[in-house]
Amino acid sequence: MKHNPAPRVLIVNDDGIDAPGIVLLEEIVRGFTDDIWVVAPDEERSGAGHSLSLSHPIRIKQRDERHFAVKGTPTDCALLGVYELLGDKRPDILLSGINRGPNLAEDITYSGTASAAIEGAMLGIPSVALSQVWSYQTPVHWDTARQYAAPVIARLLAMEWRQGTFVNVNFPHCPVEDVTGVRVTTQGMRPPGSFRPIPRIDERHVPYYWIKIAFPDGGAAEGNDLAAARDNAVSITPMQLDMTAHDLMSDFRSAFDEVG
Question: What superkingdom heads the lineage (predicted)?
């Protein structure tokens, strides 16, 4: 992507249009441009993944000229922003976040934050997911995101982007003074068991479930995003839409060459 001195920016998230992270992101982006459009869910849609609203209508409430609250998923928001709400000029970059909580390792497969960036990449738009790592019942270190988001976005705006790629950024769960640096990382993979259904019984003795989040220890390896988070470093992970396991192609061809 060629550097644009005043880029058009589409901001999306999954925490909802009034979440502190998206308000902070817009504030940071105003240091680069005033051509900012915010299209975000009207309420939290964490864990929505790359889902679309296919079986019911999507309602939009326009807050002002460039802020739109959508009764839909983050992916819906990306589509509406690009095709409907920004007019004839597409965004130069899509920024999704800043999410309250990590989007590390396999979180990408569940994350509405990451999925909005994935949709942007599918539409041929340079796209970035940004998250502030956080754990329950602890402070959210928004100042860490505030400190590092601007220089990260500035460098990404100046880079050439390959079609079918997006970037996943995580700011560490620590105060600014404890950040150990910025790392370009690979995607990690935790051991199985991060999400588990927990049974409950309501007051009418009808069973229901909560999905419990409990990240197991392990998965941090040299150079990956989990290790960066563990070491209080900002992680920047270049990612791609092509999920083919290219290193397995030869084995699979050998296994199936006589079938049919």
Answer: Bacteria
- Is there a contact between 194 and 188 (Cβ–Cβ < 8 Å)? no
46 known member of a binding site = yes
* 35 labeled part of a ligand binding site: no
Instruction: Provide φ and ψ at 180, rounded to 5°.
Output: -95, -5
pLDDT digits 0-9 by tens, 71-114: 999 999 999 999 999 999 999 999 999 999 999 999 999 999 99
The three-class DSSP label of residue 95 is strand
Longest distance between any two alpha carbons in the chain, whole Å:
62
Count the neighbouring beta carbons within 10 Å of the beta carbon of residue 139. Answer: 10
Concatenate the DSSP letters of all residues of 43-60 into one string. S--TT-TT----SSPPEE
Torsion, CA 112, CA 113, CA 119, CA 120, rounded to 10: 160
15 is in an annotated binding site: yes
Structural domains of the chain sorted by starting position, each given as residue range(s) with its CATH number in brackets: 9-188+220-256 (3.40.1210.10)
Rounded to the nearest 10°, the torsion over CA 111, 222, 215, 107 is: 10
